[in-house]
């Protein structure tokens, strides 16, 4: 049996208590008049719990142990005043922001304004248009099936998202959205417009040599799906559309996911076994090969993608994209110029778009070249970093001059 020291056990209890206490954002111990208390609320709760777990001969000896080991037992947050700027990427890390230095947060997903994190009802295949609220989101979980139906999980999801949004409002720090779609959702949920800015992702140039689509590759008639194999990513829609395309068209699937077995059965039912290749998870070298041997990338998400990096990765490799018109995807794909946008779950139109590019080499090549030009103009990592640097400078300036507005 593994043993653990009293000090290590107390520190573990403290970390668990403090994480729980900070996440709930409620003061359970009332402040008393007089000098500043020697222990924080989390520490007091920890001490009360520890007295039941750590056997000491007497209360006096227990308190003596605490006094002697106080600093080691209760780890402190880093002094944030020493930093020039903090850029928060993870929602739960906002809990620890003290406001002692300039800070900024990037919203990469729907979590700050959607308890389920999807903005999508999978049962009805509809998008959620509600603002976040206890009643609306409870209905969404229980009736619309957007998340867990377990009462504890529903309450946890709703409270967590509300806590994050309120924490952001209270901190009054700028928020970077990865698309106008995400920014609009933040504003719709009463986050101040003047504290938000859109900064779209950048993506690195491929390490391998890339080139515009050639006639030889186009004649191979291969298309590529790259992503997780889960219902939200729309592979089922793509497979049903593939069944209505020219029989010469072959689909490469790069990715893994818990829905793969169901999709393999669907491939068999549709009679597509000879037209689909499952590659599983692919490293960067393998995925580059698959990009280069296809004439188009298919991005058939059926949920509102916050942004979607697949489009940019295709542009970097001179390939056109056929994608669903959802979420932030249309902000990255210029319909008819760098690819084709299709209404979500429209099997006939998706099949028609695939067939159109399969018989139009020059159009496929042109879309890929225009996508690459757009990538070099707006989506390289250098461009992204330069824009981010300006946002940092503005954030620091506004922190030190409270009269300035971030949006000015």
Summary keywords:
single chain; 408 residues; alpha/beta; Rossmann fold; 3 domains; six-stranded parallel β-sheet; four-stranded parallel β-sheet; 12 strands; globular
Number of spatially distinct domains: 3
| N-to-C CA distance | 62 Å
CATH superfamily of the largest domain: Glycogen Phosphorylase B
Q: What is the CATH T-level topology of the largest domain?
A: Rossmann fold
Spatial sequence of strands, sheet with the most strands: 9-8-7-10-11-12
CATH architecture descriptor of the largest domain: 3-Layer(aba) Sandwich
Biggest beta sheet summary:
6 strands, parallel
Q: What does it look like?
A:
The chain is of the alpha/beta class and 408 residues long. The chain folds into three domains: 6-73, no CATH class; 83-202, no CATH class; 215-379, 3-Layer(aba) Sandwich (Rossmann fold). It is built from 14 helices and twelve strands. It has a six-stranded parallel beta sheet, sandwiched between helices. Helix 8 (235-242) crosses helix 12 (347-358). It is globular, with a radius of gyration of 26 Å. The model is unreliable at 26-37 (pLDDT under 50).
């Amino acid at each position: 049996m593994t043993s653990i020291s009293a000090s290590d056990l107390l520190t573990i209890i403290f970390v668990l208590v403090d994480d729980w206490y900070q996440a709930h954002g409620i003061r359970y111990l009332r402040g008393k008049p007089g000098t500043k208390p020697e222990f924080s609320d989390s520490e007091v709760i920890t001490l009360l719990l520890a007295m039941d777990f750590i056997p000491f001969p007497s209360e006096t000896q227990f308190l003596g142990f605490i006094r002697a080991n106080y600093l080691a037992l209760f780890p402190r947050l880093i002094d944030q005043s020493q930093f020039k700027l903090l850029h928060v990427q993870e929602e739960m890390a906002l809990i620890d922001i003290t406001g002692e230095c300039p800070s900024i947060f990037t919203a990469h997903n729907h979590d700050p304004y959607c308890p389920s994190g999807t903005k999508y009802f999978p049962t009805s295949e509809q998008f959620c248009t509600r603002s976040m609220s206890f009643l609306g989101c409870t209905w969404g979980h229980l009736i619309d099936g957007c998340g867990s139906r377990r009462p504890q999980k529903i309450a946890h999801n709703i409270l967590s998202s509300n806590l994050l949004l309120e924490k952001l409002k209270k901190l009054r720090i700028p928020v970077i959205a990865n698309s106008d779609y995400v920014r609009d959702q933040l504003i719709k949920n009463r986050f101040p417009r003047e504290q938000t800015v859109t900064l779209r992702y950048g993506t690195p140039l491929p390490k391998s040599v890339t080139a515009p689509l050639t006639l030889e590759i186009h004649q191979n008639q291969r298309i590529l799906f790259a992503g997780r194999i889960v219902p939200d990513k729309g592979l089922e829609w793509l497979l049903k559309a593939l069944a209505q395309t020219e029989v010469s068209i072959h689909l490469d699937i790069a990715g893994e996911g818990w829905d793969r077995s169901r999709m393999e059965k669907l491939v068999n039912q549709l009679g597509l076994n000879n037209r689909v290749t499952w590659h599983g998870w692919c490293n960067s070298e393998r995925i580059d090969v698959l990009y280069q041997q296809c004439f188009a990338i298919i991005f058939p998400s059926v949920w509102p993608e916050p942004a979607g990096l697949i489009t940019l990765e295709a542009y970097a490799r001179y390939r056109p994209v056929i994608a669903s018109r959802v979420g932030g995807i249309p902000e990255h794909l210029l319909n008819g110029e760098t690819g084709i946008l299709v209404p979500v779950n429209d099997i006939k139109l998706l099949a028609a778009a695939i067939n159109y590019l399969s018989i139009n080499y020059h159009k496929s090549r042109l879309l890929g070249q225009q996508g690459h030009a757009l990538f070099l103009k707006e989506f390289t990592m250098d461009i992204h970093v330069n824009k981010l640097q300006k946002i940092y400078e503005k954030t620091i300036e506004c922190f030190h001059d409270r009269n300035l507005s971030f949006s000015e």
